[in-house]
## 1
Amino acid sequence: MGILNATPDSFSDGGRFADPARALDRALEMVAAGADLVDVGGESTRPGARPVPAEQESARILPIVKALKARLPTPISVDTRKAEVARAALDAGADVINDVSALGDPAMGRVVAASGAGLVLMHMRGDPQTMQQAASYHDVAGEVSAELGIALRRAQAAGVDSERIVLDPGIGFAKTAEHNLELLGRLDELAPLGHPILLGPSRKAFIGKLLGDLLPEQRDVGTAAACVLGLLRGARIFRVHDPRTTREALSVAEAVCQVERSRA
Ligand code: HH2
């Protein structure tokens, strides 16, 4: 899943792809580099980010979703927490809603259910402005798994097709650097929830910190390493800014896994 943020303030690609023509070029580049899905976002969710009104978020993403749908066969997901924005994006042709609040908006489940689209439910506590104060766990993998289970049941109760639901532990959302590392190491504990797992470590601060305060654009090798580890622990979708580096790393890891499976 290649990241395309139409925001002025995203922590890594803010301000670069707000124009639909530039966004389309970037999407084509990411697909050529191995992305199977393009995730369009119109509101930054980095820690402390200011919320964006629905009309403004829609105005940022809809021209891009339409431009991408007209030119690309690749499925498009839209990263939004608002049912109103999701409805407009689905009408414009989006295939998946990526909701980092896991149905924080009570109308979101019904909107996605009515469209038959896919849904990503990501773990977070609070919202981007408050979440880092909620980064307190006795058992991070157990609590994330239990809270994702609650979100999953809410989505099913709203009528979302179970086959279309993907779960995400929310790397960096209400998590310290240590929580992120522990979650990555224990990702296989989410398998009993029975849904595909999406992982979004891309260029996040814990990687920069581990590598000696690297800037976001310098964190792609670290991101690929986290994704390979995630693959080995069961993740199947990887949300990244630089699909080429991660795709290459995953291809090598997959080849090794395939040989291992054929010998078993
Ligand atoms: N991370 C970000 C945004 N959306 N969605 C999912 N499912 N999982 C994630 O880990 C995730 C996400 C934050 O990254 P980015 O979009 O690069 O930054 P910003 O929120 O500043 O736009």
## 2
Amino acid sequence: MSRIVFLNGSFLPIEEAKVPFMDRGFLFGDGVYEGIAILDGHLVDNDAHLERLERSLREVRIPNPYTRAEWTRLEEEIARRNGMTEGFIYFQVTRGVAERDFMFPENTAPTVAMFTQAKAIVNAPAAEKGIAVITVPDQRWSRRDIKSINLLAQVLAKQAAKEAGAQEAWMVQDGFVTEGGSSSGFIVTKEGRIVVRPLSNAILPGITRKSLLALSQDAGIELEERLFTVEEAYDAAEAFMTSASTFVLPIVSIDGRSIGDGKPGPITKKLREIYIRMASSPRMAAE
Ligand code: PMP
């Protein structure tokens, strides 16, 4: 079956999906995006992802081409057309096509592109073994709360991680961890409390982070929303990351130092289980 993508109102084979040369996404990185998991055929945390998309678009003043119900229909349709029941749906909106000039063009329709990536999220080997992380300086701009398609700093950070034999980079500013290249970062203290950086312009408001915090409260796990340093992370009992495409993944080393006993920790495992249970439940995922 040919891979079907969505571009500007049409579903079509990926080979036929062409974006014009003068698209502002291509020339300026002038756009925003979203990424959402699909599990057992349902969209995970769909409303929260669409709410964040609406906010990103508003913040960069790109008109939102679709209502929430229309976005949802497109997501469901692209998953159906690709026969995908577990994986990732990516969608982006750019300011559209216009002669290159910095200021917003007038009367230009946004470009909307959407594709799917089939992926085993629940049975990912990284969830069993845990992953290695390196730390790098956070070189991004000051509005990281907007899910911008400008990802050059993250491309460089994650490539540095790969070259060091790691699977994620934790970005660091003034000695404090901001977040992962494409994930939210957490540690667990020796007393069993989760520590996560509070929301601000310095990090993306992760949707998996938000859901997981609510679920961890229900499970009676204590939470500290505060900054943490790289040294505190080295010394933590456990560390983990969250993102829509991975859910909860244990981190077993940071900069080559083992975290805890160097194996996925019990609190991380429990949180992953709780999250998967929520994500597989049609009732909660539909909320
Ligand atoms: N931070 C950054 C920088 C990210 O790119 C992502 C994933 N897109 C996240 C955090 C996690 O966000 P979410 O749980 O919404 O996927």
